[in-house]
Amino acid sequence: FIKPLAVKSNGQLVIVSNRGACTFRETSQGVKGIPSVSGLVSALEPVVAREGGVWVAWGGRFGNEGDETGISCPLPEGDPKYVFQEVMLAPREVDLYYNGFANSCLWPLCHNFIEKSVFEEQYWQAYCQVNEKYARVILRTTKPQDFIWIHDYHLAKVPSYIRRFRTRARISLFWHIPFPPAEIFAVMPWAKEYISDMLDAELVGFHTQNYAQNFLQAAEEIAGAKVDYVSGTIYRERKRTKVVALPIGINWREFESLAGSAEVMQRAAQIRRSVGGDYMLVGVDRLDYTKGILERLQALAWLFKNCPQYRGKVTFVQIAVPSRTDTYAYQELRRKIEETVGRINGAFTENYHVPVRYLFKSLSKEELVAHYLAADMALVTPVKDGLNLVAKEYVVTNANNTGVLLLSPFAGAAQQLKEALQANPFSPRETAEQIIAGLEMPDAEKKRRLKALNNVVRNQDIDWWWEQLRLNWLGDVLQSRYVSPSDKVPE
Ligand code: F6P
């Protein structure tokens, strides 16, 4: 067993992602940074703020086709801990690489929506170009001994572009969304090259064991690599890639402290009063077809239709955070959600009590926590989700109350949060029945479940996640990327 290296003793940490800690806007006073809305960003910020280093990401601004390296800015403002290194992308690149390949091909493919996946050669070409551009910015702004930690499906070819120039670079890749079964991934025309390029990372991480298994199988069946399923190791051209399942955690102290603040508690009480009725349910999601918002609304309609005793008593508050608004599938979904909300309210409003409150906007952390606190129950019922951090945030926020979490078995978090109620989002009846089970649950059971859920979320938090990852990456794999003649490689 080799002791993990402290990242800084040898090189610095370099986080690489599509979206970074902030999005830049041009104003009359100059460029202004606005915090980004993303689970990935809120999870990685505390890690890089503690370790220091560089965060390489697109800053949301548009450059010309040839522009590569944008501004470097120390963050957080006023108390800098790391440097944000902006990558410049042209409008056409964002359209084809981000809206196109990442969000219209990979995203649906990995979330079981094959029929929505668009396989366009020009999307793929742009994806390759942008990944290569990222690699050039990384090579320019980092040193050979640095630890390059790449995130998500937007940038899976970056390891391979970096290795062309730095064969011994230390590279790890974390995949934040589901990884589908090999036979589904194989449908993508560029699957073989894609998986092979991911194998240029020495460590590849996923949120669940299922996703990791699917990836091992894809490496064997699609990329023709040798795989040791027991140790989670992939062998290719005398080099190995380790695969780990590590569910990302949250910075629960931040949520605990917000939940205890007098202003947030007052705001929660105010929300509760404005909503009225006996029970408040909450859903918080980016407006995305993977999140099961429409299916959830159908479950509510089922409940109000078949159990009229809850009319006038239950209010469902859906906070839908605007997301990928340039993509047709998201515009279409928004239209359908808004229509459905209107239909439910038209049919089931009783004594002017409105059953569904719908907000299409993003909330500050304080507002978010106030909504979690006000709600008797959180409905986290995606049709497919890599992990889902809202589930974890809700249980920490309500640790001292009596909240109930209803979770879809198709959210990665369901592998960890066993004490949550579960419902299949594709069944309006089952979801409605579980909502009723949650509303009618005795307080003692609510508290028992919340306690068990809190144990998991607090023990396997963001510090645990980074520590485990670091152990796997720097404590073990680094020394053994190259297979020696005495190593046993599966036949
Ligand atoms: O976690 C998956 C993810 O795609 C992240 O990579 C991303 O930052 C987040 O969801 C939000 O999506 P987007 O960056 O496309 O708005």
Automatic annotation (TrEMBL):
Signal sequence coordinates: none
GO molecular function: alpha,alpha-trehalose-phosphate synthase (UDP-forming) activity
Pfam families, per database record: Glyco_transf_20 (PF00982)
Enzyme class at the top of the EC tree: transferase
GO biological process: trehalose biosynthetic process
Swiss-Prot/TrEMBL keywords: Glycosyltransferase, Transferase
InterPro entries per record: Glyco_trans_20 (IPR001830)
Gene3D superfamilies registered for this protein in UniProt: Glycogen Phosphorylase B
Family indicated by similarity: Belongs to the glycosyltransferase 20 family.
UniProt-listed PANTHER family: BCDNA.GH08860, TREHALOSE-6-PHOSPHATE SYNTHASE
EC numbers on record: 2.4.1.15
Protein known as: Alpha,alpha-trehalose-phosphate synthase (UDP-forming)
